[in-house]
């Protein structure tokens, strides 16, 4: 479904700007339990090996590189700040052991159609280390031609020459962490990267034929104002990346220690944040971007926008994707994986991660075996978030439930949202409206059983 709305009124943004998860998984990662551990993960992998999934569906890989040279004050990621690049040597050795544990169970040569290197800062690794990592992965897995192979790039850690290495190693998608081009904002968050540097890198990446270039932006940062952010928006439109991810900064200093370095008085107030959000939507839509959903925009001919038009969008831990739902192996400290009807997460500290691998065990410390209800609700949430519509019959056939009675309470809530123009309900199913697409997270939250009783929603970043 293609949204045709060009401007979302501020009062709607304000009304639906409630706290909520991003639904890169359902149930969300905060529901994982320690009762699910390394042995459960090994069992899920063994089941994959014996099941049809191993033959039919390719794998997705996520590799977490936790190191960063310097601290961005808004950071909420799992990272290790260090200038000691030799720490990468040991880390790569342990990553290799973790991969070996996998191939011992599922065999070498499993097809991979999607790889994402995230962090931290993946480009903390030098060219030789990146090559070593990719060689190791290619020895263990079979990378399908035409797959999505992406890497997060910190513009401060890379020059035009390094782009050649990334292209040569098979990466075809780059994601640049920009956040804001304004020098005062960059200084306030301790991440100074001149706009000219980013423009030069993006230009060089285009010349080298990278298929898709993404830029991450954040609004709500210290020293930002709607007027200053307008200038950044204009620069981003001039840069014209294929994809834009626009996130709201959630100031949670009690939870994320680096954020304590941000002076609260420098933060824009709620009204200014709403204004930045609404101006961003207007700026990107009028520049011809398609609103893919949940903070993401893409140029009309980008694969993500095409998939959206064709109802082929999917969602995984990296956000929206064109790749069909497949099992995801998460490698590295704190990584999350999804195998069959399970989720798992690795140890969050290096010591613990190394310790598990020294014992020859998967470094999984928590996870979840999904119940039938979880799987059903996941299907409903993903249908709303990816296709913008849901046919009762298709859910009923796949999950053997009577939709209207199983979800009677949820449909009651949706009827209220229908009056506000977010959805259309009829006998056959639910259709998200063009306007509702901008609030699809709020619609998904209606079906989140865990959230319905949750009193700690403030933990999550703001919706949209
Ligand atoms: S925002 Fe990214 S680059 Fe900055 S400290 Fe966090 S993980 Fe590192």
From TrEMBL:
Matching CDD domains: Radical_SAM
Gene3D superfamilies: 1.10.10.920, tm_1862 like domain (3.80.30.20)
Highest taxon above the source species: Bacteria
Ranges where the Radical SAM core domain occurs: 53-285
The keyword DNA damage is annotated on this UniProt entry: no
Localization annotation: Cytoplasm
Cofactor(s) required for function per UniProt: [4Fe-4S] cluster
EC numbers, comma separated: 1.3.98.3
Record's keyword terms, sorted: 4Fe-4S, Cytoplasm, Iron, Iron-sulfur, Metal-binding, Oxidoreductase, Porphyrin biosynthesis, S-adenosyl-L-methionine
Residue sites binding S-adenosyl-L-methionine 1 per the record: 62, 119, 152, 336
SMART domains: Elp3
Pfam families reported in the protein's UniProt record: HemN_C, Radical_SAM
One GO BP annotation of this record: protoporphyrinogen IX biosynthetic process
UniProt GO molecular function: 4 iron, 4 sulfur cluster binding; coproporphyrinogen dehydrogenase activity; coproporphyrinogen oxidase activity; metal ion binding
Cofactor-binding details, from the entry: Binds 1 [4Fe-4S] cluster. The cluster is coordinated with 3 cysteines and an exchangeable S-adenosyl-L-methionine.
Catalysis performed (reactions): coproporphyrinogen III + 2 S-adenosyl-L-methionine = protoporphyrinogen IX + 2 5'-deoxyadenosine + 2 L-methionine + 2 CO2
Alphabetical list of InterPro entries matching this protein: Coprogen_oxidase_HemN (IPR004558), Coproporphyrinogen-III_oxidase (IPR034505), Elp3/MiaA/NifB-like_rSAM (IPR006638), HemN_C (IPR010723), rSAM (IPR007197), rSAM_horseshoe (IPR023404), rSAM_sf (IPR058240)
Pathway: Porphyrin-containing compound metabolism; protoporphyrin-IX biosynthesis; protoporphyrinogen-IX from coproporphyrinogen-III (AdoMet route): step 1/1
Entry keyword annotation includes Cytoplasm: yes
Subunit-structure text: Monomer.
PANTHER family: COPROPORPHYRINIGEN III OXIDASE (PTHR13932), OXYGEN-INDEPENDENT COPROPORPHYRINOGEN III OXIDASE (PTHR13932:SF6)
Entry similarity comment: Belongs to the anaerobic coproporphyrinogen-III oxidase family.
The protein's role, per its UniProt record: Involved in the heme biosynthesis. Catalyzes the anaerobic oxidative decarboxylation of propionate groups of rings A and B of coproporphyrinogen III to yield the vinyl groups in protoporphyrinogen IX.
Protein name: Coproporphyrinogen-III oxidase
Annotated organism of origin: Rhodoferax saidenbachensis
Lineage: Bacteria, Pseudomonadati, Pseudomonadota, Betaproteobacteria, Burkholderiales
